[in-house]
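Troubleshooting: if your tokenizer reports a length mismatch, compare your output against this known-good record of 178 residues.
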Amino acid sequence: MTREEYARLMGDDATGRQARAFIDQAREVGPLPRYGSPQWLALPAADVRRRAAVLVAAECWRLESSPLWIRAQLEAEQDGARRAATAEFEDMWRRTLDGITRVDRARAAGSDIGLPLPERRRLALQPRPGDRTTPQPTRPRPPSPAHHPRGPQNGALRRSERLARTDAAADHGRERTP
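Known-good structure output:
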């Protein structure tokens, strides 16, 4: 952007200088209300601040609708988007490198993190410090009370005995026919 384009973009041309001079004179009288606001509507029609507020709105419209302003605004947005994308990309790489560093530290401490599954399985089968090297004797499991060698214990009945008792109780009230 050339110096002249920048000056026009910032309203530093003959039109802009004349508008700023009038606005500065009106500010000496008092604060300028925003065009269309209740404070602006309350000003008398002859008040210079009323015309200055209209001029501020006109200057804003003139500058924001100029092709130079639009181009500068798009460039600023693109620069901002480019900076945001670059920052996001750098953040992604920082997190990736942090993860790699954590894996490297864990592997240096003896962890199997990050290793292929077959290698992890092989390492899992190797004894580690503190593992028992001799197998512990297994204790036999006590038999179920229903399968005790001397018959059911503690009131436990075999299934066949339960069925026989149920049948006997059902037949108890019936007459027998030959």
